[in-house]
Amino acid sequence: GTDGAATLQSVQDLAEQLALQGKRQLAESLYRRAYFGHLAALGHTHPKTMRSLGGLGSLLMAAGRHEEAQPLYERALDDLQATLGRRHPDALAAQHNLALLLRASGEDQKAELHYRIASAGLEASLGA
C-alpha cells in the first residue's frame, strides 16, 4: 500500500537521491511523506522515523532554512538520546549536527556548547 514499510523506504531512498541531485522541493515533499508515514506506523523513536527526520532537517539546513531545520535537529537529538543514550555515537552525531546548524545560524555560544558536549562524549566513548 501507499503507507507500507517497503513503500515508505522507497520514498525515503528517492528523497535522498533527489536531494543529492539538488531537486530540493521534490525531495522535501518526499522526506515529509516518509517522515509522517514512519511516524504514524512506527512512532517517533523508531530508527526509520529518526532517519527521515534527520534527512528532512539536513535538506532544510542545506537550503539555508535554519529556523525550520533547528526544531527538527533538536527533536532528533532528544529522541536519539532518549532511545539510545547520550553517549551513543548516533546521539553524539546529532549533537554535532545541531552545533553545525547553530554555527551556521550565527549562534556561536550555543554551537560551542553542543560541540563541547559532542567532543567530550566521543572522547569518553572512543578514548582520547
Précis, in short:
The protein is mostly helical and 128 residues long. The chain is built from six helices and no strands.
Describe the structure using short key phrases.
mainly alpha; 6 helices; globular
Describe this structure in words.
Helices cover 82% and strands 0% of the residues. With 128 residues, it is mainly alpha-helical. The protein is globular and about 45 Å long. The protein contains six helices and no strands. The longest helix is centred in the first third of the chain and has 19 residues, at 24-42.
Uncertain regions spanning at least 5 consecutive residues? none
Report the strand count: 0
Encode the helix/strand succession as letters. Answer: HHHHHH
Shape summary: globular
What class do helices, strands and sheet pairing give? mainly alpha
Summarize the biggest pleated sheet: none
The radius of gyration is: 15 Å
Oligomer category = single chain
Question: Helix amount, in percent?
Answer: over 70%
Give the count of helical stretches.
6
Work out the strand percent.
under 5%
Distance between the termini: 49 Å
Overall average pLDDT: 93
Topology, pairings included?
Layout: H1 5-20, H2 24-42, H3 47-62, H4 66-84, H5 89-104, H6 108-126
Helix pairs in contact: 1-2, 1-3, 2-3, 3-4, 4-5, 5-6
